[in-house]
Structures are given as C-alpha cells and as structure tokens.
Design brief:
The protein contains 8 helices and 7 strands. With 242 residues, the protein is of the alpha/beta class. 37% of the residues lie in helices and 18% in strands. The protein has one domain: Rossmann fold (3-Layer(aba) Sandwich). The longest helix has 18 residues. The termini are far apart. The structure holds zinc ion (ZN). The site of zinc ion has 8 residues, from helix 2.
Length: 242
C-alpha cells in the first residue's frame, strides 16, 4: 500500500521536524506520540474517587463543617507520569487531555451543590497555590491551567502562600496538618463567597484543609473540593460511610 507508506513517511517527517520544538513522546508511557497516546487516554476514564475532609461535628462541635472531595482518577501509573510531566517537565501539551478528567470532577462537585447554590456561576473556583519556587521556575500554574481549559476563561488566584513552602512528602497525616497550618492566606476578603477548592492531587488532604481554613478566615464558605487525581491508598479513611 504505497499511499499509506507515503502518508506514514510524511507523518514521520513532520514529527521529526516538530521534535526540535515539541516533545514527541506520550507523557504517560513514553511511546512516540503527541501529548498522551490513545491507550493512556483511556486510563483517564476511571470511576470517581470521593472523600470527605475535616472533623465531624460530633467529635469536634466547634470545628468548621467537613467538606466533600471529588477526584476523577487514582494517582498512579499513567496518570502519575502524565501529571508529573505536566507539572515538573514543562509538558503543557498534556493540559488539554488532563483537563477532561479534571473537568469531570469539577462538574460533579458543582452539581452536588446546585440545590444550595442554584447557579453554578455563583460558585467561585479557588485554585490551591502550588509550591512557590517550583511554580515560579516553571512559569505557569498547572491547576489554574486546567481550570482555564475547563471554564474557558482565566481563573484568578484567590489564595497566596505566606512563609516558606515546606516539604510534606515524608510526613504523616497529623504532621502534615500541623506543617501546612498558616501557610496560605486569602488575597482579599471573601465574605459571602461560595468557593470550590480545586487542586491537582489529593493526598493527605492537609493542603486542602489549610486552603479551606484560609478561605473561611477571609469570610468565605467552602462547598467542596475537586481534583484531577487522588492517592487511592491514603484517601479511603476520609470517605463518608456509605
Ligand atoms: Zn501512552
């Protein structure tokens, strides 16, 4: 089939030419392709991972109400590779593919609250600020980039980091909570504002809880949180009884 061969050759030549400017491997598995290959895209289709963060009012009557989290996929294998490539290696070409599951989680989280806040436009998306140094070095904010793809418009930051970002990787849940406390602050008052927190990955939930604290401190209300992915092993302890 000479025609097919010619097309393939032309395609390869085009890919070779573009390789100088753009990555030509799948960010999920490394096969030669653009962004995410079709097989890796299918892994973005998993069942939603729901959780709940915050103390129950029975245990701690004075603490703010817990809130639900919705993540689109488990943070493992392909999804983990693709997200790390997007966040750490400048693979912004993956944003379009990752914005699909992110949008799915955000839609569900917004839908859960339509009875309370009738118009989805009444709920403000609040990106959780990323680690300062690495975010500045990359020159873009991965969470806000996903949010922009989902909403079709610029999503301004509502929170900022105050004080140095501290590494969380080696800490337990309690230590993470203590460590994160006081690291975020609202950029302006949020009185009367209903907020959906958005993040890339939910791990222990410590950063989301700190973001919720900062929103409430500024007078806002947290209706929930949506993320692209969640670590499946650490998260089930936060799930509400079903
Ligand atoms: Zn792939």
């Amino acid at each position: 089939m000479p025609d097919r061969t010619l097309v393939d050759l032309a395609r390869m030549a085009a890919l070779d030419a573009l390789a100088v400017l753009l990555p030509v491997t799948c960010a999920g598995c490394g096969v030669p392709d653009r962004a995410l290959c079709p097989e890796c895209r299918t892994t973005l289709d998993g069942p939603l991972i729901r959780g709940r963060l915050g103390a129950s009012s029975n245990e701690h009557p004075s603490s703010p109400p817990p809130f639900d989290t919705v993540a689109a996929v488990a943070y493992e294998s392909t999804v983990r590779n693709a997200l790390l490539a997007f966040k750490e290696q400048g693979r912004t070409d993956v944003a379009r593919a990752l914005a699909v599951p992110f949008g799915r989680a955000a839609e569900v989280a917004l839908d859960d609250h339509r009875d309370r806040v009738p118009s989805a436009s009444g709920i403000v998306l609040c990106p959780v600020p990323q680690g300062t140094a690495s975010a500045r070095a990359r020159g873009y904010d991965p969470v806000r980039m996903l949010a922009r793809r989902f909403t079709g418009h610029h999503v301004p930051p509502l929170l900022r980091r105050v004080g140095p970002a501290r590494t969380q990787k080696l800490l337990g849940v309690e230590e993470r909570l203590r460590n994160a406390r006081g690291t975020l602050q609202a950029r302006h008052p949020l009185h009367g504002v209903d907020v959906l927190l958005i993040d890339d990955v939910v791990t222990s939930g410590a950063t989301l809880l700190e973001a919720a604290r900062a929103v409430r401190e500024a007078g806002g209300a947290v209706i929930g949180a949506a993320a692209l992915a969640a670590t499946p092993l650490r998260h089930p302890e936060n799930r509400p009884p079903s």
